[in-house]
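Re-run with default settings, no changes from the original entry. Doing this only to confirm the output is reproducible before filing.
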Amino acid sequence: MAGYGQFCAVARALEVVGERWTLLIARELLLGATTFTDIRRGLPRIPRATLAARLRSLRSAGIVEGAAGRYRLTEPGVALAPVVRELARWATATDSVALSEDDLDTAALTWDMHRRVNTAALPARTVILALDFTDRPPGDRYFWLHLSRTEVNLCRQDTGAPVDVWLATPTDAVTNWWLGGLSWAQLQRQPGVRVHGNRALTHQMHDWFLRYVFTPEVLDASGSG
């Protein structure tokens, strides 16, 4: 990316992290991604070549380091955490970046759900949650979360294991719940939303998820620093 040619610290920072996808790659690494594949699963629309180029740029800038396909943020990279957090705070406080239909992505949503599981709240046995995004085409409609206290796996193919809970929902409704815009009770009252399966588990499942890391409640609790 061509430089801005300005002494301003904001301009100089944007020369490093202002290119498309760059801060989102940092976000993925901050949330625990360590491999190229992990980053792509959190950013399913990024082209492979673009991700490779951005990682090279971040390594050159001293923000990311990695070898043998594994990556981590350096100290200057970790220092981007409050920048990412404040961008999220700004987005939740303004209508300028309201959620749109183009922002709805079942692959990105389910990947975020899989990494935000409250394993301590899970039953002692493995449970399987099937997600049916009723407004999506077949390739983006069905996902299965295999949840246990020691391991969480996200599948895009039915393994044949018995499903304990089904959540059938339009994509916008469950996305708004995940972002903190709806409570679990409000989600269940949305048109087209249905939770069914093992009765005891359907009553527990909202406790299994920590939801989006940048919900207004989490941002308020984290402070502005």
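The longest strand covers residues 127-133. The two ends are 29 Å apart (CA to CA).
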